[in-house]
Amino acid sequence: MTSTETSPGAAARAGTTWRAVDAPPVPPTLEHPDIWAYQAYSEIEHDVQLATWGWTDWWAPLPVIHGALQQQEYHRKILVVALPGEAPGEAPGTAADASPGADVPLTDGTAPAPRDVGGAAIVNLATVSNTHLAYVTLMVRPGLEGQGIGDTLLARVEEIARAADRTTVITFSNHSPEPAPGPDALDAPTGAGRVPVASRPARFALGRGFTLEQVERASVLKLPVDPTLLDALHARSTEAAGDDYRLHTWWDEVPTVWEDQVAILWTRMSTDIPNAGLDVAESPWDAARVRSHLRGLAGRHQHVLITVAEHAPTGTLAAFSVVQMPVPDVPFAFQEDTLVLREHRGHRLGMLVKIANLRAYSERRPGERRINTWNAQENEHMLAINVALGFEPVGVAAVWQKRLG
After folding, report:
1. What SUPFAM superfamilies does this protein map onto (predicted)?
2. 0.90 cut: is pTM over it?
3. Taking CA 54 as the corner, what is the angle to CA 48 and CA 60, rounded to the nearest 5 degrees?
């Protein structure tokens, strides 16, 4: 689905005042009258991604964002939108309500048009772990910057976070390209990665109490990869792994017998990857959460490809790698989680599981494709694997953190 309106609505003129409104609950269908807020979010994200990258692989079309927000089993997700005009009964500049999910009057009874929404934010509140955190995605429609929309949304976001007893807010901003070292760059405290200090997102975050904690590299691999290269990398990795490891590849499922062990791998993803100075604790998974995650991906119209490495002498899983792709046959996919347990590192298992996924994906969807991924800039080992496979950097994401006082 493409954006149906790329220009601001008629009400969004210079001097417009804005109010933050919690969207109606996620509607059951895309035809429901309350879909307007979710359509607006998707349209704004499309335009923001296009303005940042020059392409829209990472944009979530309406069916995808609708499916993602419908799934609330392990995270409560609240969509907030910015609409023109003051909230009824409120003095200019004040919040409409401090409780999450507030039923704020929207208009005179007529649902707003998606194009009238000036910005949007999603607040993601985990419910089983890290219940001190609020993860936030906040966007302003291109062309409406500088009208206070970001501040209006952020104020509401922080109200929601405080009402849910969250003490830390984490948010992200995308930048392309990564700036060169020097006075125009803000360096991550990890010592790896930079963002343009004068960019609007960086100035917004720094001016509102956020600190830069980590920079992630965005990379793209163009397919097909030279089979000679893959064969050589696979041969070296197989030699390093020896006879103790064997691979299993699954599409859109995790066999029941492996659910508990895949849950361990996803649990360790929360502790074994670089987290810089982020206030993040372990996020435990079990078999039920693995099944819920797969249902959620299906609800977001995503296929999932998982390759695991089994340590044959013990029958336990030592590594895994996950690729997601839209159900429609589009020319791109997403390299998601990859992990080798610390106790099994040094056997080139990360390369093995990634090559297995590349081959399986290319068999299912041959031809010219691309795979997008993100890695912490300080994650040297995983970045080395990606570089060897041919991933090329296209930009960075800044990870910002704010402690709520």
Report:
1. Acyl-CoA N-acyltransferases (Nat) (SSF55729)
2. yes
3. 50
